[in-house]
Amino acid sequence: MDIRKISVIGLGLMGTPIATLLMKVGYQVTGFDIIKRQMSNLARLGMRAVNSPKEAAKGADLIMLSLPSWNAVLEAVEGREGVVEGVQRGQIVVDTSTSPPWESKALGERLAKIGIDWMDVPISGSSAQARVGNMVFMVGGKRAIFEKIKPVFDQIGKKTVYAGKSGDGATMKLAINHTLYLNQAAAIEGLVLGLEAGLNPDVLFDVITSGAASSDLLIARGKDMLNSNFSPKGPVVAANKDLALSLETAKQLGVVLPVGALYQQLLLKAHYNGWDREDATVVMRIYQQLAGRTGTTRRSIGKRK
User: Fold this and answer.
1) Does residue 269 fall inside a structural domain?
2) What is the largest CA-CA distance in the chain?
3) How far apart (Å, rounded) are the C-alpha atoms in residues 209 and 143?
4) Considering its fold, how many domains does the chain have in total?
5) Which domain does 76 fall in, by range?
6) In a 3-state reduction of DSSP, which class is residue 123?
7) Rounded CA gap, 244 and 101, in Å?
8) Per-residue b/e over 236-265, b at no fewer than 16 CB within 10 Å?
9) Residues 14 and 40 reside in one and the same domain
10) CATH number for position 109
11) Half-sphere exposure of 99 (CA within 13 A, CB side)
């Protein structure tokens, strides 16, 4: 079966660029979001907006979920006017959200009983990377279904990987996110150390992104971090959720992750400060406050007179 009609449920930071890219490469896209403005913006680009996940599921060759929490996934799939009310046997539902592996696997088993193929397909990449198709998709579920959906994801991302059985994609995403946030912590500490020592921020950024300590995160967000610009690419609320999931998974496996647990405390402090909608790198502001700083650099990077 050729996939031509794709429905995207959840048109937020990741769902919007996914739907946009799908339309650009020629798919017929239907979309739903509880925020009507999100649908209106994409409707102007050619997306068909509908009023419920049930309506989005009807007649779709592929149904994609991009939602902020597992509760939102359950509501969209099994809730009132949910996906299960609109699907037919043989349809494919993929979850690109960051979800608990054990819950994802259980939902897949429930959907299998009504003839629906469920795949966990989380994404490695920020919203900024998603807008330009710089995403890696990790797929858990039946290998045969992976082969069917892989061409779709190949067209909107840079890599599509078969992770293994149901839940393995979700688990791989948690391992990657855990690594990402500890990378973020290391970047913050190094930058704060350099700034507090009075190093030129332009030179600090140039050297740190040119040598062994460089990372995609530093290249993409380092200048913003040095300029105390924490506009959200990966907000605090998402980081707290993701780290809580990786730590819970570790607990279930009997694995100890002490550094991740410590960094989550700093993210929780950002939450308590009311910074949920700011980028998770706003933790840098906490470090600066601990150092007696106001959260601004001595001179904006890249703005020499």
Assistant:
1) yes
2) 66
3) 39
4) 2
5) 5-166
6) strand
7) 13
8) bbbbbbbbebbbebbeeeeeebeebeebbe
9) yes
10) 3.40.50.720
11) 32
Match 């939102």 to its residue by tokens.
Answer: 72
Prediction pTM value: 0.87
**133 and 154 assigned to the same domain:** yes
| 217 and 242 assigned to the same domain | yes
Residue 103: exposure state from Cβ atoms within 10 A (0-12, 13-18, ≥19): middle
The span from the CA of 90 to the CA of 187, in Å, is 46
**Phi, psi for 64 (deg, rounded to 5):** -110, 135
Q: What is the pLDDT along the chain (305 residues), one digit of tens a residue?
A: 689 999 999 999 999 999 999 999 999 999 999 999 999 999 999 999 999 999 999 999 999 999 999 999 999 999 999 999 999 999 999 999 999 999 999 999 999 999 999 999 999 988 888 999 999 999 999 999 999 999 999 999 999 999 999 999 999 999 999 999 999 999 999 999 999 999 999 999 999 999 999 998 999 899 999 999 999 888 999 999 999 999 999 999 999 999 999 999 999 999 999 999 999 999 999 999 999 865 444 445 565 44
- Say how far apart CA 264 and CA 248 lie, in whole Å: 12
Of 2, 18, 178, nearest in space to 95 by CA: 18
What's the 3-state SS for 204-215? HHHHHCCCCCCC
CB 280 within 8 A of CB 235: yes
Residue pair 108/118 in contact (Cβ under 8 Å)? The answer is: yes
Identify whether 20 is part of a domain: yes
